[in-house]
Specification:
Number of strands of chain A: 20
Distance between the termini of chain A: 42 Å
Number of strands of chain B: 52
CATH architecture of the largest domain in chain B: Beta Barrel
Number of helices of chain A: 5
Strand content of chain B: over 45%
Largest sheet of chain A: 9 strands, mixed, barrel
Shape of chain A: globular
Structural class of chain A: mainly beta
Order of helices and strands of chain A: HEEEHEEEEEEEEEEEEEEEHEEHH
Oligomer: heterodimer
Strand order of the largest sheet of chain A: 2-3-6-5-4-7-8-19-20
Distance between the termini of chain B: 25 Å
Structural class of chain B: mainly beta
Chain lengths: 349, 785
């Protein structure tokens, strides 16, 4: 509601100020405060390694350098299963500073059990999270893809498939949802000319994902089906198949509120109708002094997944081929794109 | 005026007062407006020979005790021509006066306190009276004359920014202002989200703002009372006046309906910002905005003893996105007043009032279409009397009852296809009883005491569901353990107490005085808003078992001195305010449609203090005012659980804490109908929260704001000027036009409206948003015929 009001004001201020209102980039002196610990990760019911990113606040110009700069190294990290008292260690990942990952393949999160994280930093400070019970996620009923052309919005590609989800919300309890998605798409490059005069490595598969936080609560719709819920946008750079996997997470109320505040704070557009700036406090606190809060969230979420394969041949290709020709990269497709591979991704079809 | 006319206005009192001295007599009377026949409040009555004086009250009445003798009495008011009368005082005398409205007093232009030495003579302090007639000539944005923007040029009054709705008085919040239109409160004073105020200046007779020392008859808000009275229709002839501007046009019609007994005044203002929107079809295709407001007043005066007025007001706003959400908000009032003048010593009044405010949000989005509405309604009945047994005493007594009904939020699907489930937040009911007594006692020529006492009792009434929360942990919807349901009309909670209102004037010679005041107020109605500025979807909340009334104590001291035959008025006022039970919000609070709203709220203490310096020049070709204010407004949250406190419970500046504010306004009569006016305003930038760290979550860069309001926007300053041309050549001319050419923000200062931070291609950048960032010329045509 609030971002809408902000948008209302912004739209309104422009005609009123005619061309007198303006937005300018400025330089603001940033105060420096003592770094605060940041925890980002969680456990799910999927049999896969669980990872947690441990960093601290600071300043950076590019996110690519941020993890290197802000990483908290040499911390001891444990996930505790409250019901069994089992503690499982997370080990630092060599190539990614600040990232810690479980190594025990037998340790899989169980619906109904509660989990928390214990972190002891190098300077002997202990942090932990509020135990969170893992809830079961209702199954995803269906996914549909719809071609969209957003030429009006400045973007790297104006074309994409909007993925819409439908699910049945259980009426007997409060449900909080988060959706994440990833996929594999086809990319095209100029290719490599071989001795035989053939162009090789002209097409490849590349993984894509979206890191925006898409959440919803059934507070106003409890028990009614969730329809037309936009969960993902799969970008089109070249005509071809899209492999898409959508995960439906069952969030706790606290986790949902955390992500809602997270989005509120990120959606500031500068009007005086924005929510007031505030720190986004999650469920991590200093074990010795619970008043000292860390940032971030450690979650325990049940997940249901569903996959969708978009054939890609439904589009009127000649026009799209012309329009997307600007995305053709030079050289070897496998090198031109992130994790480009000639092999069809494993497990699809 | 000739002698015959003066005699017509004089008549002797049949009943004589018991006299304390053979040598003294009482001069009393009533001052009315010649055009509207309505009493004029705040007229300075000055005895030139003895330098004694007084001021008319809200019924236009005055009285003064004088030794027998010959006197010249001068009546002066900001919005009327001054007049003088010679009298021979041989016995008690009633002198009724009718004053001609100031249609074009070319000598006078600016807003100020009262004329002449009223500011030295009366016990009143911390009061601003606007000269509505002069407002038309001051430079304004888009040519829209705005009462609230004019008030912001006065010391102690500011806002969070250009285009923000509402105003802040002496460090008070926007919901702490009691805005009364013909006695009925307005819950929202904004059009177009705050760019304009919804008070039509053409229908407003007078506007008085009490920043402190609020008279005992007003209550229910902590910071101020803005009292607006609409005009009554002319008893002799029909008038049409209006204006055409860039954004809106206005028209007011008034005149007699049945002889002089029943008159009508009706005014309308219609805006067409859509015209500007249409100039930029690409940017704003499908956006629609409009607003209007309507005022009407019937005045029935069957004889000299009775006067009944019935007035109504409605303001309407709407804004629509293309194929998207529609926002609408409306305010309305209805007021009936019946005043009886039983004798020249006793007047009574009875009033019935109703005020409403509601907003709607309509979203047509398929499968989640909904309508959200919220309303507040207040009904009020008051009765009071004013008794002035002698010139030295004036006693005011009154009582009233207010009934509140608030529907904080009602969500409903628009179609059967919608997944939205109907949700209605419990309607709140409350009742407020009040009684007050106030005595104005002129002890001797230098000491005057105004002592008021108000008693107020508020009850939260059922139906009401009170949740019981787990002890020892912060309240949250998860910690609800039990609930108690109260039935219809059952008392849930009672709050209240005594509110002293004291003011003392100590005259220090004839040209200066020292004034002291103390004021206590309670507020049972709170605006729930977690944004920097008031927004149309903010809703109101009554005090309940979890939300005690806000309480404020204000102490003020002032020195007033006039110079050069009262042509220059100077004053210095200092104040200190202590506030408790302010409503604050937990970080990330969810407010709208929250049935457990108390779990999102915190209680806070506030304090504000300041000193205001004012110099007014009221006479001559050049008139104007200069004021400077140093003030602070601070908040501190006190919570049971330290982790919840904002800024660790330390004092931090509120959003409208602007330590240094200076305003210079002036007007110069250029002759031949031309007037040049200007405003210059400077203030410290408002507090803002800048980031003090960045981090990444899910590879998304996030900024951390750990200290609320620890930073400030750059300073604000602006110069406006206008040239106005008046076609009147003499005072008697009734058909005329006034052209106003105004330049807002003359030197095109890009004053920051906000500074915000966002990630552009994942790097953090800061941006400054300026609303009126260059010179804005406008032309307005005002007419009367």
């Amino acid at each position: 509601m609030k971002p809408t009001i902000s948008r209302l004001l912004l739209v309104l201020s422009l005609p009123l100020g005619i061309l007198m209102s303006c937005i300018e980039q400025i330089k603001v002196p940033v105060r420096t405060e003592a770094p605060i610990l940041v925890v980002d990760g969680g456990i799910t019911n999927l049999p896969e390694p669980y990872q947690v990113r441990i960093t601290q606040t600071g300043t950076f110009n590019l996110p690519s350098e941020a993890y290197e700069k802000l990483a908290v190294r040499n911390a001891q990290v444990l996930i505790e299963e409250v019901e069994s008292g089992r503690m499982v260690s997370l080990f630092p990942v060599e190539t990614e500073p600040g990232l810690y990952r479980t190594a025990d393949p037998d340790f899989v999160g169980k619906i109904g059990n509660s989990y928390l994280i214990h972190i002891t930093t190098q300077d002997n400070k202990s942090f932990q999270s509020v135990p969170e019970r893992m809830l079961a996620a209702p199954p995803i009923k269906s996914l549909t893809a719809r071609f969209s052309d957003q030429r009006a919005i400045v973007n790297d590609t104006p074309f994409g498939y909007e993925i819409f989800l439908e699910t049945d919300d259980p009426a007997e309890q409060e449900n909080y949802y988060r959706w994440t998605a990833f996929g594999y798409i086809r990319r095209e490059s100029a290719g490599v000319l071989t001795f035989g005069g053939n162009l090789w490595y002209k097409f490849c598969w590349t993984p894509v994902f979206d890191n925006s936080i898409t959440i919803s609560s059934d507070a106003f719709t409890n028990g009614a089906p969730i329809r037309e819920q936009q969960v993902y946008r799969s970008p089109i750079y070249t005509v071809g198949k899209h492999f898409i996997e959508v995960r439906q997470h069952a969030l706790s109320r606290e986790a949902y509120q955390y992500w809602r505040r997270f989005n509120d704070q990120r959606e500031r557009i500068g009007t005086i109708f924005d929510p007031l700036p505030s720190p986004i406090i999650g469920n991590i606190f200093n074990a010795e002094n619970p008043q000292e809060r860390a940032l971030g969230y450690f979650s325990a979420t049940g997940i249901s997944t569903k996959r969708l394969i978009v054939p890609g041949d439904t589009l009127s290709t000649p026009l799209l081929n012309i329009e997307t020709s600007r995305f053709i990269a030079p050289g070897d497709c496998r090198r031109a794109f992130f994790q480009g591979s000639e092999e069809r991704p494993v497990g699809w079809e | 005026m000739n002698l015959r006319m003066i005699r017509m206005l004089l008549f002797l009192v049949a009943f004589c007062l018991p006299q304390f001295s053979w040598a003294n007599a009482v001069l009393r009377g009533k001052v009315i407006d010649e055009a509207t026949q309505q009493p004029i409040q705040g007229v300075s009555v000055m005895i030139l020979e003895s330098k004694k004086g007084t001021i008319t009250d809200q019924n236009g009445e005055y009285s003064i005790t004088l030794p027998l003798g010959d006197y010249t009495i001068r009546f002066s008011a900001i919005s009327h021509y001054n007049l003088a009368r010679n009298i021979e005082l041989t016995d008690n005398l009633t002198l009724n006066i009718s004053m001609r409205p100031l249609v074009n007093n070319l000598d006078e232009l600016q807003i100020s306190g009262r004329r002449d030495d009223a500011n030295v003579r009366s016990t009143e302090m911390s009061v601003v009276r606007l000269n509505i007639a002069a407002l038309k000539k001051i430079p304004v944005v888009f040519g829209e004359v705005d009462i609230i923007r004019a008030l912001m040029l006065q010391p102690g009054i500011n806002s969070v920014g250009e285009g923000a709705g509402g105003f802040n008085v002496r460090g008070g919040r926007v919901d702490q202002n009691l805005v009364l239109l013909d006695g009925a409160p307005l819950f929202n004073t904004s059009h177009l989200l705050g760019f304009f105020s919804n008070l039509n200046p053409d229908v407003t007779q007078d506007a008085t703002l009490y920043k402190g020392n609020i008279p005992a008859r007003y209550g229910g808000r902590l910071s101020s009372a803005l009292v607006l009275n609409s005009k009554s229709g002319n008893t002799d002839r029909w008038n049409v006046q209006g204006g055409v501007g860039t954004i809106s046009s206005r028209v007011v019609v008034d005149g007699p309906l049945i002889g002089r007994k029943l008159t009508l005044m009706a005014g309308a203002r219609v805006a067409y910002p859509g015209v500007i929107i249409k100039l930029f079809p690409d940017l704003f295709e499908g956006n629609k905005a409009n607003f209007h407001d309507l005022n009407a007043k019937l005045t029935f005066q069957p004889n000299d003893r009775h006067r009944v007025t019935l007035s109504g007001y409605r303001s309407y706003d709407r804004f629509k996105f293309p194929a998207d959400t529609l926002f609408g908000w409306q305010s309305g009032t209805l007021a009936m007043h019946w005043n009886t003048f039983l004798s020249d010593k006793l007047t009574t009044s009875v009033s019935l009032l109703q005020s409403t405010y509601n907003f709607q949000v309509d979203s047509p989005k398929q499968f989640t279409d909904f309508t959200l509405t919220s309303t507040i309604r207040q009904r009020e009945a008051n009765a009071g009397l004013v008794f002035s047994p002698t010139a030295n005493h004036k006693l005011e007594v009154g009582t009233g009852y207010i009934q509140y009904r608030i529907s904080p939020g009602n969500l409903a699907p628009q179609t059967s296809e919608s997944s939205i489930r109907p949700l209605q937040i419990e309607t709140e009911y409350g009742g407020e009883f009040s009684a007050h007594i106030q005595e104005e006692w002129t002890i001797n020529s230098s000491l005057t005491l105004t002592a008021g006492l108000r008693y107020v009792q508020f009850k939260t009434l059922g139906p009401y569901t009170q949740y019981a929360y787990e002890a020892g942990v912060p309240t949250s919807p998860e910690t609800v353990q039990d609930s108690v349901v109260f039935g219809d009309g059952q008392t849930v909670q009672t709050y209240g107490g005594w509110e002293p209102r004291l003011a003392l004037k100590i005259g220090l010679g004839s040209r200066q005085s020292l004034k002291l005041s103390y004021n206590r107020s309670r507020q049972f109605l709170h605006l729930i808003s977690n944004t920097t500025a008031m927004s149309p979807v903010d809703f109101w909340k009554l005090s309940d078992p979890f939300i005690p009334p806000q309480l404020s104590d204000q102490y003020a001291i002032g020195i007033f001195r006039n110079w050069a035959d009262n042509s220059i008025e100077t004053s210095v006022e200092g104040y200190y305010k202590d506030i408790s039970n302010l409503v604050e919000y937990r970080n990330g609070a969810e407010l709208l449609l929250n049935p457990y709203l108390e779990t999102s709220l915190l209680s806070a203490f506030g304090k504000s203090y300041g000193v205001e310096f004012t110099v007014n020049k009221n006479k001559g070709r050049l008139t104007g005012s200069l004021n400077y204010t140093y003030s602070r407004a601070l908040i501190s949250t006190k919570t049971e659980f330290p982790g919840e406190a904002i800024n660790e419970g330390e004092w931090y500046p509120s959003l409208f804490d602007r330590p240094h504010v200076a305003n210079l306004t002036g007007g110069y009569n250029l002759g031949k109908g031309w007037t040049y006016s200007f405003n210059f305003t400077y203030s410290t930038g408002r507090p803002n929260t800048y980031p003090d760290g960045q981090y990444l979550i899910n590879t998304l860069p996030v900024v951390n704001y750990s200290r609320r309001n620890a930073d400030r926007l750059p300073d604000y300053h602006r110069l406006d000027m206008s040239f106005s041309y008046d076609t009147r050549r003499n005072r008697e001319q009734t058909k005329y036009s006034v052209w106003v050419f105004s330049f807002y923000n003359f030197y095109g200062r890009k004053n920051p409206y906000s500074i915000y931070f966002t990630n552009y291609r994942s790097a953090l950048r800061s941006y400054q948003l300026t609303v009126f960032g260059s010179i804005i010329p406008s032309l307005t045509w005002n007419f009367k015929f």
